[in-house]
Write a structure and sequence with these properties.
Elements (H helix, E strand, L loop, with lengths): L3 H15 L8 H11 L8 H8 L8 E2 L6 E7 L3 E8 L6 E4 L3 E7 L2 E15 L2 E14 L4 E4 L2 E10 L4 E8 L10 E3 L3 E3 L1 H5 L2 H15 L5 H8 L5 H15 L3 H12 L2 H24 L3 H12 L3 H11 L5 H13 L6 H13 L3 H11 L9 H12 L12
Antiparallel strand pairs: 1-2, 2-3, 3-10, 4-9, 4-11, 5-8, 5-10, 6-7, 6-9, 7-12, 11-12
Helix pairs in contact: 1-2, 5-7, 6-7, 7-8, 9-10, 11-12, 12-13, 13-14
Length: 401
């Protein structure tokens, strides 16, 4: 990887920003323009990077930062820095930033989703109730650049399709006026995970519970439940998210205690946890799949809210193929039910995707089966349809718009 090109990039950003009096509110525009127009060599040699990391005499970059699996600072001034981020984890949470700048897809491609949060009730500075709305979803390819506006100016999530994926970020160090930096947990919660992640109360609880777990203390669930009357809802959310498994069969008693104190907020917390569980199931499934097309499909299912958006992303990636045909092919590969011959399986999926009636679905499956085979009973087809529609990873496919 040519480090010198990033130093040239950094100097060009500095010169352009200096011409604007280092105005913080103009930095993202400067970064977007300079980074977008930069001619960058995109070769990435991980072994070479490792060797240079271990050579203190090279002094070409520093590994620093919380974003990415390998964050390399390749140029830095007191006002801003240029960072190369390597990603092996596929997805980021729906998050905001405490800095401004721009990012560019350096290697690989990503699904980029932008959101807006409409606040209905501010609980405190660390958590709010409202509605998370997906505004745009797009496929970002190598070389594409996007502006970063701090705080609520950009609320987004990235799903990296290739391993590794590499981003170049030109960013300010920090912008305190953009706080709090919220993370969205759809459908209804926005949480300041940065503050809660370093909260001394939550961290003290985590350390105590860790000791109890290692000591196999049977009172651990009772201890968590006893915290509810003494914590605000933001900290309860953090504790539940971190330590839910340790509640075990006592989770219901914990939720009863939360509901008694915080009412409907308990439902919002559970809905957010259900959303997170769905994402985790798709991530787990994606981790077992090696086929690149199927990995792309699972990435789309993870991010797109309905069938229309799914088909749009498929068409953008595979413009020469009908999106429905591609989705049927991928579903067939993932399901592998073996209940019917292959043609019958395909015929079952198409009516499901089109929202056909049970009678139409039975007819379509029957038409695909050879004359020597029995017509499938409606009850069997209905059961298969429910089994397929019941797979959490596929639930957005049945939402037409």
């Amino acid at each position: 990887m040519d480090i010198q090109q990033f130093k040239v990039l950094g100097r060009e950003v500095d010169e352009a920003w200096r011409a604007r009096q280092y105005d913080e509110f103009q930095f993202s525009e400067v970064a977007l323009e300079v980074l977008g127009n930069a001619s960058l060599s995109t070769s990435v040699d991980l072994q070479s990077i490792l060797e240079r990391c271990l050579d203190p005499a090279a002094n070409e970059f520093r590994i620093r930062g919380s974003f990415g699996d390998l964050p390399l600072i390749v140029y830095e001034t007191p006002q801003f820095y240029v960072q190369v981020l390597m990603w092996t984890t596929a997805t980021t949470n729906i998050h905001q930033h405490g800095f401004s700048g721009a990012f560019r897809v350096f290697a690989g491609s990503s699904i980029h989703s932008q959101y807006e949060f409409h606040t209905r009730e501010r609980i405190n500075s660390r958590i709010s109730v409202g509605d998370a709305e997906l505004k745009t979803i797009e496929l970002l390819r190598q070389g594409q650049t996007h502006e970063i506006i701090s705080g609520s100016g950009l609320t987004h999530a990235l799903f990296h399709l290739d391993l590794p994926s590499v981003s170049v970020v030109v960013r300010t160090h920090a912008e305190p006026w953009s706080s709090p930096q919220m993370t969205l947990y759809p459908p209804h919660l926005a949480v300041d995970t940065v503050t809660l992640g370093s909260d001394p109360v939550c961290n003290a609880i985590a350390k105590c519970l860790r000791v109890m777990r290692h000591a196999q203390d049977p009172r651990i669930a009772d201890s968590i439940i006893s915290l509810v009357p003494r914590l605000d809802f933001a900290r309860i959310y953090q504790v539940f998210q971190r330590h839910r498994q340790q509640l075990g069969s006592e989770e219901g008693r914990f939720l009863d205690a939360v509901r008694e104190r915080h009412g409907q907020l308990t439902d919002h917390m559970l809905e957010s946890m259900q959303y997170e569980r769905r994402l985790e199931k798709i991530r787990e499934l994606r981790g077992t799949v090696r086929d690149l097309e199927l990995r792309f499909f699972l990435g789309v299912l993870l991010n797109a809210p309905n069938q229309k958006r799914i088909y749009e992303l498929v068409a953008a990636q595979y413009p020469e193929v009908d999106p429905e045909d591609k989705v049927v092919e991928w579903l067939t590969g993932l399901l592998r039910t073996g209940e019917f011959p292959a043609k019958a399986g395909v015929s079952l999926l198409r009516p499901l995707l089109r929202g056909s009636s049970l009678e139409e679905t039975v007819r379509a499956v029957g038409d695909a089966i050879d004359d020597t085979e029995a017509q499938p009973p409606a009850a069997l087809v209905a059961t298969m349809c429910e089994q397929i529609k019941g797979v959490p990873a596929f639930d957005r496919l049945w939402i037409r718009n």
